[in-house]
Amino acid sequence: MTDGIDTDAFECQRDRLTLVNREEEMSSLTALVQDARAGSGGIALLEGVVGIGKSLLLDRLVSALPADGLYVLTARCDALEHDFPFGVVRQLFEPLLATFDEPQLTRLLSGSARTAAQALSGEKLPGDVLLPTEDMSYAVLHGLYWFTCNLAAEAPLVIVVDDAHCADMASLRCLTHLARRIEGLPILLVLSQRTGDAATDAALLGDIAGQPLCRVLRPGPLTHRGIGHLVKTVFGHEADDEFHEACLAITGGNPLLVHSLLSVLRLGGRPPTVDGLPYVTAHDGAFFHEAVRSVLQQQPESAAAARALAVMGDDALPEVCARLAGLDDATHSAAMRALRSNGLVSEVDDGRRWSFNHGLIREVIVADLPPDQLAEAHQHAARLLLDAGARAEQVAGHLLMTAPPATEDWAVTVLREAAREASFRGAPALAVDLLRHCLPGEGRTPEDTPVLVELGLAEAGVDPQASVRHLQAALEHVHEPPLRFRLLSSLASGLIRSGQSLQAVRLLAEEAPTVRDADLQRLLEGQRLMASAEDLTSFAVTLQEYPFDISRPGNTPGERALIAAGAGLCSVRAIRAQESAAAARRVLESSVPGVDSPFFLTTAATALLFAGLPDEADAAYQRVIDITRQSQRLLLYGLCQALRAEAQYRLGALSEALAATRSALNVVPPRHWGRTLALPVATQIHALIDSGDLAGADAAAAQAFPSTSLDTWQWNEFLCARGRLRLTHQDPKGALEDLLEAGRRQRQWTRTSPAVSSWWFWAGRAHLALGAPAAARELAEEAVERARKGKLTDALGAGLRLLATTESGARKLGMLEEALSALDGSPARLERARTLVDYGSTLHACGRTEAARETLRQGLDLAYALGAARLHAQANDALLATGARPRRVTSSGVESLTPSEAQVARMAAAGGTNREIAEELFVTQRTVEQHLTSVYRKVKVSGRRGLGRFFDPGSTAK
Question: What is the three-class DSSP state of 630?
Fold first, then answer.
């Protein structure tokens, strides 16, 4: 007897349960632990219905692990914490972090891992800036991954997460992020999930289950022998086979239901015989509920304590639970011991806290509480936690379980504080829920303004239309320049996301003067210009109304932003290309790190790109990429990588262009690219075609795009790329449809510079393939004329090359010679290689064989160095036609490297460590190691020191 109740009355206490029929699963998990200790990453996912024994299996695994030489991190997901970001992550890491001293913690959170601190504690490290919304969510995932890698470098890790289907979304994304990159790391990730229940995100759990290294374990039902073992455990003696068979029929062999059935019999004083079973008539586990209720009905104090723990959640402070239960500490302690003796709860944290032995016990207790009583209990729990000094998010979790709105000042304060923490941790949807909970329904007064502003800002990336509504309501009450600036900026962005770009432009035009700060007004004016480029109608209005004076000096951040925006928009017209380039250089040269917006610096770099200066643009993009990577602004990082890929493609650096598009698309998932996804995909298609990977180009072109993509200028570039791909597949008619549509749209957007897009060149080639040289000549002559006026040498070379294809003989030779002259000294090596091959072929057609051979060899070598496989094959065939014998291409050497291998090798040659390379490219260290191993074999060196003979830092392969 313990506290007046028979010990073991209800057998659900994990440390007393026997693991039956689970030898195979335990053996598999033990083997995976050994693999992790040997440095091979692994994943195990336990799946099964409630009560099948997943939690017990994980408990036994953890208890069997050695205490030394291994980090074991455990977490048990709770539906009560489901909405709060990184709750499971903190369960995993906080106990271990508490054992580290400050130098060790600083080391573990260094480099790319530093943003993990904001998920683990919500506190900034010295010198760090908390980032908002989606940037923060990507940055934290990246930081947590590298923090986990840092831990694993000290000792192998075993990460165990029970009931992962209840995990908060942020933690589940973190686990998925790790699972995709776990190969080669000394980490074992073990998860359990209940089948048949709604998961936080079934797709993410499915992603984990689909990883090549994931071993899915599905514990089966108990056998007759297993049931017999449990009968002996509960009753102290065995039963006959007929009873075992009947138990199996009733419970399906589910261990928890078998325990419950046996407990119901024992509590009713019935023996384990078939004769006693007719009294147990409930099916589908209802006898489990009956067993729990039978225990709680024996003592009112125990029932009150159990209800309090069910409301507060596992691991709640006993003194807070006692206040909620209306019991003094001594009575509460006795009640909890009674619950323990009956197998409902267990002590955790060295006896300082309590936890239900199974999540289903809590569900039974909560289900018996009327909704009004449950909401009142959560309200009382929130106040008790606040008085006890609990974190805002913990208190707010209970407030969310009450009916809105929150009327007490203390509740509103807590909800606002928790919302700020949620935003900083990358959970804007939760921040929105928290803030909406403290808004009165009707008749708002100016006193609601702070909540309205915070809610509107939080809704910006979650519900743009609601964000616009709330920010507009708050606008008339906000007068402080910095806050009014931020509100207007966010309101304009919300209007754009809601498809109201013209309204955004008008808003900024009308309201910018109300911000009583001249430079903030300029920043808003710059945003207005960029907003107009998001919508064709508003862009037309801006072109008509705005003077586009980009000659100002750029002495302030606002001036520089305005110049950059103007230069970006003017550069798409050839007549102002060089003026735009000069303005962009002025912005970039006078910008101040940490002061000027990286977004406007990216805009200035793009002005250089569209002005036909891809080398200058590439250097400027690299500078912004360094800034965004260090500050973890990963959305802008992805956009900048996509634009840099276009610059590198124009430079002929195909491997670098492909690596940049992969980096952009890996860092930012497709759903977050939204309207702009077409941009990196278009560059990817062009580079894959030139590299000879038509299957890859087809796959890129076939992916799905948001419907909103069709209304953007970025879609013009995709149409151009897809049209070229169709032309490559010998479908000139389909190609011409895409290419002419791209040209029509480019003219609508006044993107008339031939240096902006190559649609006109490929449309000309499609016309030629369809036997319409006059149409091709018209496109070429227009491009040449605009290129000459804009001093766009690369576009001039391409235009002359297209024009030459409409001619023959001496006139064709003359045009190609002029094209080569225009490209002399140009960094556009791919265009030069194309022109060399065309010129050499024309020389051969004109009977100048020796000159043709020399020119074709130059084109062949350059195409080979650039990795332009299709052009190399064309040059090779043309050279063979002259009677020359091209040099044999081998499968070794620098030229045999894949784009990813070449990029990794170049960074290694420049002195980058595997860790630094992995962080910069957003890949795993294992991937870097594999690439370097392949590089060493291909270029025949023993290590990274030998790479200097083949690579110059910052340049392409020799």
Answer: helix
